[in-house]
Amino acid sequence: MVVDPEPPVSLAALDQLHQVMADMSTAGGLADTLQTVADGVVNGLGYELACVNLVRPDGDLVVAALAGNSAAEALITGRVGSRASWDRRLGMGEAWGELRFIPYTEGWVLDEDDVPQWCTGGPAPRFEDEWHPSDRLFAPMYATGASGGELIGVISVDRPRSGRRPGAWGRKALQMYAFQAAVAISNARLRANMQRALVRLEREQQALRASEESFRQAFEYAPSGMAVTEMGGDQHGRILRTNDALCRLLRRPASAMRRYSFSDLVHPEDIGTLLRTSTEGGRAELRLGRRDGTYVWVSLRNSVVADAADAADGPRFLLTHVEDIEERKRRELQLAHRASHDSLTGLPNSAGLRSRLTARLCSRPQAGRPGSEGAVSPSPTVYAEPGYAEAVHAEPVFDHHVHVVAPARDESGADGSTKGLAVLFCDLDGFTSINDRFGHNTGDAVLIEVSRRLSNGVRDGDTVARLGGDTFVVLADGLGPADAQDLAARLRNAIIPPIRTDGRTVRVGASFGIAWAHCGMTAEEVLQSADHRMYVDRRSARRRQNRPTGATG
């Protein structure tokens, strides 16, 4: 009669194995799952000792859980075995399906490797299938359940309670258990990763909420103006949000601000400046319109912010910082005005006059006939003063500069139709005696009144400047020689009437010299020419005054 070496499996044993697997699948965290796996081998599969070796990120295996022997648990839990040693163990011995059994007759070669192990003592086996204390049985656990998947750990067992090597049922049960343990460990790892991700997400959300609240407070309560505008698309530049400081600065309610973009509020002369700075890091100084129609000087500074929900691909906005620089601009303009204007009369001074004159002139004379803008001639003629001509050979010039030329006279001596930039040099006659006799206060009052009369006697766009002392200069564009003579006569007549100051009446006269500015001359040359003409005309006038009555020329 043949005796079955392994008794039939009882229902109680199956129920116990089912309960062990259920406990393993419902364990909490990864550590609890690993310990449940080890306990299940001892409680449900009939082994006295079970050890769970878990693969670490670096590939080595660490003893993560042990059941059945408290002394062994205290000794080897947490110790690490190299992956090379474990690969050697799983590559030798007998293959029992997915299991690996290394009998004591072969296992002696592993005694010196670095895999943590617990050695039990006992007598040598008396039967062929009796368990030897040095026998080793390993159940690999793979991520996909099969040996082709990634190794996630190894269950090692020792001392079956039957005292015999496991038969077909025991081997199959351990293999199935290792499969379920791999699933349970993978699920526990997934849950742990999800929990860590949820914790990290919650922390990030808390940090984001704190950051948003910090931004909100910094935005709302900033002492200077702040605005968020759309960036890109059809609504580029549209104001989405403003703080109280900006609304107060522009004297507009927040609800009204959302109807505009900065291009709607900027001064027309500053629109180009705004467009050049509507980018990340853009910075500009320009004027923004208030509700009452006035403008205020501000400094704009832009930076790009992304939607926190999707910083990589989400919408981006421009955060614009608006600083009130009205007072600074007023001081700068005052300083610039003082540098270019006479402090007594408020007229442009020598520097201001030379700046305006230089802006009209270039260093290259016009290529073409005087008065024919843009005309080109192989040998053009440029006239320095009325009645005087000088032939200048120049290459044809093509540019966008409108050249300034002097009026010319035709061959008969009559004034031509060319208009030019007249420079009238004016010296007051009799001013020095008034200043010496009545003092500087009276002299200053005379200069102020003469400045007013000169300014009232010219057209809008003409320039009246004071070079210093009692010397004035008038720039009048678009005049012919006769026009310039008429202007000088009108201004002289405007100056002659008495001037009443400090309870007394005084009179001054004026001598004028007329010169013509044209490209190719410097501002200094133009002024020297006008000064020279003024002295020539003054000497001529004095000779006429001293000529005996009835004398003929």
From TrEMBL:
Stored InterPro entries: Biofilm_reg_signaling, GAF, GAF-like_dom_sf, GGDEF_dom, Nucleotide_cyclase, PAS, PAS-assoc_C, PAS-like_dom_sf
A GO MF label: diguanylate cyclase activity
CDD domains per record: GGDEF, PAS
Span of domain GGDEF: 419-550
Domain PAC: 282-337
Nucleotidyltransferase listed as a keyword: yes
Pfam families, per database record: GAF (PF01590), GGDEF (PF00990), PAS (PF00989)
Biological process, per Gene Ontology: regulation of DNA-templated transcription
Record PROSITE patterns: GGDEF, PAC
Presence of the UniProt keyword Thylakoid in the record: no
Coiled coil: 187-214
SUPFAM superfamilies xrefs: GAF domain-like, Nucleotide cyclase, PYP-like sensor domain (PAS domain)
Class in the EC hierarchy, top level: transferase
UniProt entry keywords in alphabetical sequence: Coiled coil, Nucleotidyltransferase, Transferase
EC number: 2.7.7.65
UniProt-listed PANTHER family: BIOFILM ARCHITECTURE MAINTENANCE PROTEIN MBAA, DIGUANYLATE CYCLASE DGCP
Official protein name in the record: Diguanylate cyclase CdgB
Source species of the chain: Streptomyces sp. R21
UniProt lineage: Bacteria, Bacillati, Actinomycetota, Actinomycetes, Kitasatosporales
